[in-house]
Write the structure tokens for this entry.
Amino acid sequence: MKKNNMVAMILAGGRGSRLFDLTKKVAKPAVHFGGKYRIIDFALSNCANSHISTVGVLVQYESILLSSYSARSSTWGLDSKGGGVYVLSPREKDETGLGLYAGTADAIYQNLDFLDQEEADYVLVLSGDHIYKMDYDKMLKAHQEANAEATIAVIEVPMKEASRFGIMNTDKNDRIVEFEEKPKQPKSNLASMGVYIFSYKSLKKYLKEDAKNPDSAHDFGKNIIPAYLKDNLKLQAYRFKGYWKDVGTIDSLWEANMDLLKDNSGLDLFDPDWKIYTDDASATPQCIGSKAKIDNAFITQGAIVNGDVSHSVIFSGATVGEDAKVSESVIMNNVTVGKGAKLTRCLVADDVRIPEGMVLGKKNSDEILLVSKALIAKAGEEHE
Amino acid sequence: MSKVLGILNFEPSYVHVRGLEDFRPISATSILGRYRVIDFMLSNFTNSGIEGIKVFIKNRPRSTVEHVMHTSYNLNSKRGKIQMLHGDTDYSNNELFNVDIQAFKTYMEFVDVENPSYVVIAPSHFIFKQDFNELLEYHIKSKNDITMLYQNANNTDTQYLMGDILTIDEKKRVTGFHKNRGKYKKGNVSLETYVMSALTFKQLVDEASMTSSLYSLSDIVSDCVKVMKIGAYQHKGFCACISTLNAYYEANMEIKKERELLKLINDDWPIYTMTNDSCPTLYKPGAKVTGSIVANGCQIEGTVINSVIGRNVVVREGAVIKDSVILPDTLIDKNVKLECAVVDRLSIVTHIKELKGTREEPIYIKRGDRI
């Protein structure tokens, strides 16, 4: 199938501070997810599967790992001639000097030269920290058919949760008439997914104007979309049905992992027609010991299970020792769960070693316990 | 460092892996759920820093070619090169391509063009871990004409049948060859791995092809034990010769033990293979899995005991798989009971509810069969 003339720009520079120790040295989009993936694999695989050949990844916060990971275009099959994944970090410029990305709109504005160079007709703006499978090519077709200047993907959320999202109020043809950021009294339940398609010509004009405005927050939701609405440009809502999750907190990251254990979550990773690609670890197949007990789990290669695992996701290189009990937990890369340890409702960060016999987390706890190296060290001190 | 060319030989005529061999060369046979047999030897080459590799394929090259093409084996894309050489009407009469010497002779120009100082010839039907640099260093230091790798085995009565057993003197010099007919339990098994200078290699190939069109590399080397200095280098650790269906089955069963697995495959000695981008494996409520190795992309609802489960296998509710090797992309339907079976790729077991083989004679279910 022919590639489309849309360039994707993935916003991947945020701190993700509500993930605490997980994002201390790693940008949120590079955090591991679902056994073998990193969060950004979803956006990048969606791009590749949607016949997009050029993707810019806008990085800023703790970008070493994210940049080196994203730059390997071949991981997602985005390595055809004339395409690729381009890591775009803030740079020093002749006229303006070195400037950080001040907001989502500013990040795109500072890379207009990249979009010019790629001769984009359409720009797809995405977040690098959402878990979902979406065909952006279909969305582009809808954008073109509606003759819109911008199309915003929306998902129906329960009305009582609508005040947590950016809400689009639309007319009967799904044309957006109003945008409200986290409204107290929502008028609709169409939440923005943070997925935008812009016709490049008008976007460029609005970004340039926005850049001149010293009072602007340089944000798509707060500034650019309202400016489009004010000038009566055609803004269309594109309804998405399916699984979509923002994994901005420990609880939501844990929940999204738990969703992989369900048959009906709507996120089908087994679908051969829409694979989620990721770096291929040269790991052994998963090794399930003779004393292991597994009841509902999602486990990836390189994991070694000798204990009891239930309702949990086990990532690459993780080992669960004999007589250890892991339930309702997410065990991330290269974690060692020592013999006889007991973990309930925990999310264990990469490379953490859980000492033998340690008990962490509680059944029916309100919050998921983030188990980091710091937490283990502290628990060790208290023990002494 | 002197330039070393790796040559992966095709399987000799004594290799008969019942059933599996009808569909692909042994090199392309799936093993341990996610690998092909060839991955182990090619990773030995590249982990040893050998960047030029010739893979000889006797026939049915499709599956090996496809697999190797899509696996980088950690070779860089400019200076590293794996070339696959197989029977071809332009180059060879396919009948002659049954013997390695004829294949080497046919394609000698591609060896010449690399201009190597040394060649390392390794077999495609063995699985072991070996740093070929160590072997080469030993070869150079000991001033041998040829150095051969061997294993001091204590199961030659059941394994390595019809392979070469070496007589080795106290100076580690090979003094004789004989075929293993399973008479003795112990013996020094040739791992069919030879190191020699490129010049010696060419001389041997020429000499062998002049002697007889049926001569193999092992034949000509065994002829030379008196006139050449042939050294022996001992390999230690796991070794399997995949020459029969039983040997294939046993190799899977042996390597799947955690201890063996981590010795054979680890961060210091990764085994590269083609990625399929399968998602992790889902163990559904009710699944019971113990003592097994499972590849990614599986959906398991039934019981799996002491088995190897390949990529993208579906095991439905009530199915019981015991002591079996299930190759990728198969479906084991509800309430099917399998014991000591080797189920080939893309097959569906649904109507027959019970199949039971023995460890010595595992049941084989054909590729793509629907039973």
User: Anything to note?
Assistant: Residues 287 and 304 of chain A are 5 Å apart (CA to CA). Chain A has nine helices and 28 strands.
